[in-house]
Amino acid sequence: MYFEDFHVGQRFNLAPITMTAEEINEFARRYDPQPIHIDAHFSENGPFKGIIASGFHTASVVWGKWIESERFGTEIIGGAGLDFLNWPAPVRPGDQLFTEIEVMNTKLSSRGKRGLVTLRFTVLNQEETLVLTTQCNVFLKTKQSGSF
User: Nearest 5 degrees, angle CA 110-CA 112-CA 117?
Assistant: First the structure.
């Protein structure tokens, strides 16, 4: 989708994501090896009473599912950053995640060759508990820019 195809208030829903114990462990061991993510004994006695997914893992799988939806296609130029990233509740092995993405803002560049789209991701688990919110800014090609 080109910049012009996104409109403030537009919403998209992703296919559900199931967080497996194996994936949680694998991600954590590589990128966030804290005991709350990889040590069953430690985590059982900790504040979450069990293994939880790294928040960065949760954000990564949600972003991956969004990219797989092919909404950006080859029109994406690149990311411009996050406005915020929040993890209000833990994600546990077996949780199923449901994501809604809302277009919050669009801004055309002064030359009209690209535009900035602001997307807000809201992620709930199977119990409808909010587990992640983030807002990101992405540069996209415009129809005027063609192949760039």
Answer: 90
Instruction: Return the axis-axis angle of helices 21-31 and 55-68, rounded to nearest 10°.
Output: 110
Residues 46-95: pLDDT tens digits?
Answer: 999 999 999 999 999 999 999 999 999 899 999 999 999 999 999 999 99
In angstroms, the Cα distances linking 12 to 56, 57, 103, 116, 120 are 22, 21, 9, 18, 10
Tokens of 90: 């833990």
Give the residue from 61, 58, 67, 118 showing the smallest Cα distance to 88.
Answer: 58
Neighbours of 19 (CB within 10 A): 22
Query: What is the β-pairing status of strands 114-124 and 96-108?
Result: antiparallel
Residue 91 and residue 20 in contact, taking contact as beta carbons nearer than 8 Å = no
Beta-carbon contacts of 110 under 8 Å, excluding residues fewer than 6 positions away, are none
Q: Give per-residue pLDDT as tens, 112-148.
A: 889 999 999 999 999 999 999 999 999 999 998 765 5
Residues shown for the chain: 148
What would the two tokens of residue 25 be? 């462990």
H or E element in which residue 27 lies = helix 21-31
